[in-house]
Amino acid sequence: MPKIISPQVEFSYLLSQVQRVTPEILTPDGQFLNLMEGRWQEPGQPRNFTSPVDGTSLGALPMLGHETGLRAVIFAKQEAAAWAATDLDERKSRVQNCLNQLREQVDLVGKLLIWEIGKTYKLGFTDIIRLLKACNGTWIISRGCWASASPWVW
C-alpha cells in the first residue's frame, strides 16, 4: 500500500517554511549551517540524515571537524561569561523574546519533530507546548537562563 502524506506535513513543504522563517540558517544551495561565534556559518562536512518514520532522506547535517568544533566551544565559553555579566532584566527580556519567537512556530516545529525523531503528530505539538509552559514564568525566565533543546530551536 503506498504511503499517503498530507500536503501540510510533507517534509519538502515544511523545509520551505523553515527557509521562509529562518533563511539565515541555510546556504544559498539549501545546506544547513551551524550557529557559531554569533552567526550562521560553517557548513562543515555534510552527513545525510534520514527520517525514522520511513527512511526518507531529510537532507544533510553540517558536521564540524575537530578544529572548528574546538573553536566553537572556546567562543561559547567566552560568550557564557559575557552572558553572565549581562544585566538580569536584559537576559530575561532576551530569553522571553526567544520563547515568543518559538511560540509563533509551534505548528512548524511540531510537524518537523514528526519527521526528525518520529514523534506522532499529537506528541510533537505536546512537547513544544510543554517546553514553552515549563520555561514561561519559571526559573528559566526568572534567572534569564536558556538551554537549546534542539538544533531546530533557532
Report on this structure:
By secondary structure, the chain is α+β, with helices and mostly antiparallel strands. The chain has one domain: Aldehyde Dehydrogenase, Chain A, domain 1 (3-Layer(aba) Sandwich). Helices cover 52% and strands 12% of the residues. Strands 1-2 form a two-stranded antiparallel ribbon. It has a two-stranded antiparallel ribbon with strand order 3-4. A hairpin with a 6-residue loop joins strand 3 and strand 4. Helix 1 packs across helix 4 (106-117). The longest helix has 20 residues, at 66-85. The protein is globular, with a radius of gyration of 17 Å.
End-to-end C-alpha gap: 37 Å
Total count of helical runs of at least 4 residues: 6
Parts with pLDDT < 50 across at least 5 consecutive residues:
147-154
Percent of residues in beta strands: 5-15%
The number of E-state strands comes to 4
State the helicity in percent bands: 40-55%
Largest sheet, spatial ordering of strands: 1-2
Average pLDDT score: 85
Largest sheet: 2 strands, antiparallel
Order of helices and strands: HEEEEHHHHH
CATH topology: Aldehyde Dehydrogenase, Chain A, domain 1
In short:
This is Aldehyde dehydrogenase family protein. The chain contains six helices and four strands, in the order H-E-E-E-E-H-H-H-H-H.
